[in-house]
Specification:
Order of helices and strands of chain B: HH
Helix content of chain B: over 70%
Radius of gyration of chain A: 19 Å
Strand order of the largest sheet of chain A: 2-1-4-3-5-6-7-8
Largest sheet of chain A: 8 strands, mixed
Number of strands of chain B: 0
Largest interface: A-B, 38 and 30 residues
Radius of gyration of chain B: 20 Å
Structural class of chain A: alpha/beta
Helix content of chain A: 25-40%
Number of helices of chain A: 10
Shape of chain B: rod-shaped
Distance between the termini of chain B: 29 Å
Number of strands of chain A: 8
Oligomer: heterodimer
Chain lengths: 302, 101
């Protein structure tokens, strides 16, 4: 039976939102609002060197939230602590874990930190870890890819344990809103009128994490796009605002923030996704807690 | 999740820091916007023969008074920010490559 977790405090939500917009700056000045990278099990933070789970399983399902979010984004409305992770864990005999991190930091820096954390966690897990299932929403999907790349680069052991990566509404080719903010800031900064330049200045305050979302950047210094983790299965899920897939709203806005083609990485060279699924009528946020999406995950992973 | 008293105090200090920085930086940016918009009007007045002689003195007085107001607000906010005990660093884009980041 899935055990309910303690829900996140409203102050944690506020910190997560501020960290999304200004996370790199908050971290730079050691502001306590900057969210730290932490794993949670049933709402309780895990000590990486002495992780405790009752009972610890050999398969871990790790849920990774997106920009300005907390792990509670995955919970079904009115059911705190019940989410895809706990449901899949029950089905697969796995331990569900949720990640919390400062989503305003550059994705590659969070990727390196996540890789280190996964390395420590899997090394100290009470039983040998045999399978890792990573599920990421929006930026969380990019973070998973970045962590896999960092893990291989650092010769960590955990990437070889990854069975599946699921990207839920992840902007592999950027988000139209982040691109719009980037273009608007550039346009305003080129104006001669000072009052327009100030608008550009304010837009330029957005975090490095948000900037990375304009092109789905995972690596430092635009070093290109790393390939998908070899040996693992990769699944992409996209949503659409309107029920009719051909509706102009879907063409313009996709799931509200990410277009269908970006969520599927349609233009990524050499990508071979195991499967993709599109859910018309389910927007970007509802992709994280919708029964149809869970049924699809169950079909793929169980 | 339950928070300790210390965590809660730290959180509020963080809010104080962000709010004070926002007010200080906001006041200085508002000053730029205010002056830039006012300059549009003063530039027109400077081209009209009747108003030309007084437009520049009025512009100087206007900018002086408004700058004093905005910078007083920014100064007070910066002073309040120091109460948070956090280092005073300007609100600016932090490059991911910055060694301090």
């Amino acid at each position: 039976m899935t055990q309910p977790t303690r829900s996140a405090h409203w102050q944690d939500h506020a910190s997560a939102i501020l960290s999304g917009f200004l996370g790199d700056w908050l971290e730079h000045r050691a502001n306590p609002l900057a969210v730290g990278l932490q794993f949670f099990h049933q709402g309780v933070p895990l000590c990486l060197e002495q992780p405790e789970a009752d009972p610890p399983r050999r398969t871990l399902v790790v849920m990774v939230h997106g920009l300005t979010e907390l792990e509670s984004i995955w919970d079904y409305p009115g059911q705190p602590g019940i989410n895809y992770g706990t449901q899949l864990a029950e089905l697969l005999g796995a331990t569900p874990l949720c990640l919390r991190y400062n989503s305003g930091r550059a994705i590659y820096r969070n990727g390196e930190a996540l890789s280190e954390a996964l390395n420590t966690l899997t090394s100290h897990w009470p039983v040998p870890v045999e399978n890792l299932i990573l599920v990421g929403h929006s930026m969380g999907g990019l973070l998973i890819r970045s962590a896999c790349h960092a893990g291989i680069h650092a010769e960590h052991g955990w990437p070889s344990l990854v069975d599946s990566c699921v990207y839920v509404g992840s902007p592999h080719e950027g988000s139209w809103l982040a691109k719009a903010a980037h273009s608007a800031a550039g346009l305003m900064n080129r104006q001669s009128r000072d009052y327009l330049k100030v608008v550009g200045d304010v837009l330029d305050l957005r975090s490095e994490g948000i900037r990375n979302l304009s092109r789905g950047e995972l690596l430092a210094d635009q070093q290109g796009m790393p390939p998908l983790l070899p040996g693992a299965r990769h699944f992409a899920i996209s949503g659409l605002l309107a029920n009719n897939p051909d509706h102009p709203l879907n063409t313009l806005f996709g799931d509200a923030l990410v277009l269908d083609s970006s969520a599927r990485g349609a233009h990524q060279p050499g990508w071979q996704l195991t499967a993709t699924a599109c859910f018309p009528g389910i927007d970007h946020i509802r992709l994280t807690h919708h029964d149809k999406v869970y049924q699809q995950l169950k079909e793929w992973l169980a | 999740m339950n928070r300790t008293r210390e965590q809660s105090i730290q959180w509020w200090l963080g809010i104080l820091d962000v709010s004070a920085t926002g007010v200080a930086e906001g006041a200085l940016r508002l000053e730029r916007v205010h002056h830039a918009i006012a300059d549009e009007s003063f530039n027109i007045l400077a081209r009209i023969p009747v108003t030309r002689p007084v437009s520049e003195p009025v512009r100087v007085a206007h900018h002086g008074i408004s700058s004093l107001s905005y910078r007083t607000v920014a100064y007070i906010a910066t002073s309040v920010q120091k109460l948070s005990g956090l280092q005073g660093k300007p609100l600016m884009r932090i490059s991911a490559e910055s060694p301090a980041a």
